[in-house]
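ok so for the tutorial part 2 we go from a plain amino acid sequence to predicted structure tokens. step 1 is just haveing the sequence, like this:
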Amino acid sequence: TFTAGLSLNRVKPSFSRIALADANTLTRNITQSDRHFVSVLSKIYARFDNVQAKYGASITGYFMEIVGNNNTISAPSGTFREDTQFTLRGYVEDSRGIRSDPYETTITVLNYFSPTLRFEVTRSGATNSTLTIKRFAKVAPLMVNGVQKNPMKLTFTTQR
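step 2 — the prediction. this is what the tokens look like for a chain of 160 residues:
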């Protein structure tokens, strides 16, 4: 009787990481991060790096998903569009049906909305000859590692 054993860990396909980038140049320049993206505007690009099959097998499947969300990628690269923080999980599968160990990473998608600006002007003073201007402005904060990436500057000039 001959008994042989094979460790599945030695024949599993592998990859080093899931590389992420923002395909939208404008938002990529704002966040300057591969883990922070801007909802509605970012185009999240995901890629499997250093994929390897072992012992003559070939990679036949790529799987990447937003955990708890039916938003998947089933090719060597693709894009996600999402508007919340989520965990990304991926694995590859070889021609023998053996899956790599899963890789997980968490990314943050920052809430974005268009800036709003509104003014109210009323006459005031004893003779109603003074104009009182109230301004209301709102901008999405886009905080990345404690730094405000979407500042708003409002400047007034007056003339007498």
